[in-house]
Design brief:
The structure is a single chain. By secondary structure, the chain is an alpha/beta fold. It folds into 2 domains: 148 residues, Rossmann fold (3-Layer(aba) Sandwich), CATH 3.40.50; 66 residues, no CATH class. It is built from 7 helices and 10 strands. The structure holds adenosine-5'-diphosphate. Adenosine-5'-diphosphate (ADP) binds next to α1.
């Protein structure tokens, strides 16, 4: 599903942000990526979404070899990969429904289908009945779940969650993690980066640790250290 083969990424003339990274993630896996600030986690995720290109090495996602990917194909690739960020990135002047619907409008889905699809996704993330609210009327945890709804509404094969709980208190953080687990159970591959040791320890998933641009450990059912 995801294959990184000897990936090196260098920005400008600095030392490599990632150095000869190998990573293989099967379909439907849930992988937690940990590492200190500056370790290279975001760079790794940006290579997968094609926001950045590797300096050397091979990336294959869902059978697509990134070396052969043309710029015009990148939007199609991005439909297969949903992304959520620490700071939610919601549109503040649109309702919850409109925020999620927007992801479908831009791929040309009919209004009828949108009205059918969005409530189903809001139900999955536990926000049934919140469609008419604006983001400012929601808690941080609820906002993050709107962002997750928007990321999964086009049914991506992979969901990337980059520090999704970084701005949340523990209760809301767990609400978000439970939603990620549910989405994974439905068959989506999940890549999660987090600094939250308690979440890593309780999840007991595969943990890939990155330090100074290298994978220093990769263990199933692991704790933080
Ligand atoms: P993490 O997500 O683990 O905090 P990053 O992938 O953001 O780590 O950063 C890894 C290294 O690459 C850091 O040294 C950082 O300063 C550098 N870096 C990240 N993005 C850029 C960029 N756009 N330009 C130059 N250097 C960058």
């Amino acid at each position: 599903m995801i294959l990184l083969d000897r990936i090196t990424k260098t920005y400008g003339n600095k030392g490599p942000a990632l150095e000869r990274i190998n990573l293989h993630v099967e379909a439907k896996e849930f992988v937690v990526i940990v590492g200190q600030s500056g370790a290279g986690k975001s760079t790794l995720l940006k290579l997968l979404t094609r926001e950045e290109k590797p300096t050397s090495g091979k990336i294959i996602v869902g059978g697509v070899d990134y070396e052969r990917l043309k710029d015009k194909d990148v939007p199609f690739l991005r439909r297969k990969i949903g992304v959520v960020f620490q700071d939610f990135k919601l549109l503040s002047n649109r309702t919850v429904f409109e925020n999620v619907a927007f992801a479908l409008e831009i791929v040309g889905m009919s209004n009828r289908e949108i009205r059918h699809t969005v409530p189903k996704v809001l139900e999955i993330v536990g926000l049934k009945g919140k469609g008419d609210n604006y983001p400012s009327e929601l808690s941080g945890g609820e906002r993050q779940r709107v962002a997750i709804a928007r990321a999964i509404v086009r049914q991506p094969k992979i969901l990337i969650a980059d520090e999704p709980t970084g701005n949340l208190d523990p209760k809301h953080a767990w609400d978000v993690i439970r939603v990620l687990e549910k989405i994974n159970k439905y068959g989506t591959t999940v890549l999660l980066t987090t600094h939250n040791q308690e979440i890593v320890d309780k999840l007991r998933r595969r943990v890939v640790t990155i330090s100074d641009g290298k994978v220093v450990s990769d263990k199933a059912g692991a704790t933080y250290k």
